Amino acid sequence: MIGRIKGVLVARQPPWIVVDVGGVGYELEAPMSTFYDLPELGREVTLCTHYAVKEDTVALYAFARESERALFRSLQKVSGVGARIALAVLSGVSVDEFARLVQGADIAALTRIPGIGKKIAERLVVELRDRVDGMGGGVPALGGGAVAVAADPVSEASVALQALGYKPAEVTRLVRDAAAAGDRAEDIIRKALKAALR
Question: Exposure winner among 8, 21, 140, 166, fewest CB in 10 A?
Fold first, then answer.
């Protein structure tokens, strides 16, 4: 089991990052909440990880905070929720906001997250209501620093939103409405996700 990784951030293309650890490049999938806090390329980064082995795949997921990893793991214990939906949740709302939605039984807001229909939203409320209390907060696991500017932030944001489960037409609309001159991909994604959840 790989629980933590520390190395140099060498590539990032949402939802993927590559961290070089002693000459070995680890490819990790991460939610947008982690992307928002990544340092510049070439800087050292420390991430909490979740190692998943299935019949036909092996995956390594990265998180900026222990609370994000804990929520990722808790979400997958709910019937009908896999890694893809868990990443979409963490990309769309903070751990604290998710806890508030679940404790307030806000089914309407939960169903605006890609991959979550009414039945899954109801299951999340019932099964996680007691488990999400106190899950938020936490100190970031990774090093600080500014995020590197992408060559084409609009394209990067579009790819990331599609990877989160949004349909191409919806992505086009969200990105068009969110993008402003000088925005980084992370800025566009953050604004688009907030708009999608309204």
Answer: 21
The total number of residues shown for the chain amounts to: 198
Residue with tokens 């068009």: 176
Alpha-carbon gap, residue 134 to 118, rounded angstroms: 25
The fold of 4-63 is OB fold (Dihydrolipoamide Acetyltransferase, E2P) (2.40.50)
Return the higher-pLDDT residue of 161 and 91. Answer: 91
Amino acid at site 26: Y
CA separation for the pair 25, 140 (Å, rounded): 22
Its pTM stands at: 0.70
Q: Name residues whose C-beta falls within 8 Å of residue 58's C-beta, 6 or more positions apart in sequence.
A: 51, 52
Tokens, residue 197: 């959840």
- Quick one: 123 exposed, middle or buried, by C-beta within 10 A (0-12, 13-18, 19+)? middle
- Domain parsing of the chain, residue ranges: 4-63, 69-128, 153-196
Which architecture, in CATH terms, is 69-128?
Orthogonal Bundle (1.10)
Tens of pLDDT, residue by residue over 77-121, are 998 899 999 998 998 888 888 988 898 888 998 988 888 899 999
Widest pairwise Cα distance in the chain: 47
d(CA 70, CA 103): 17
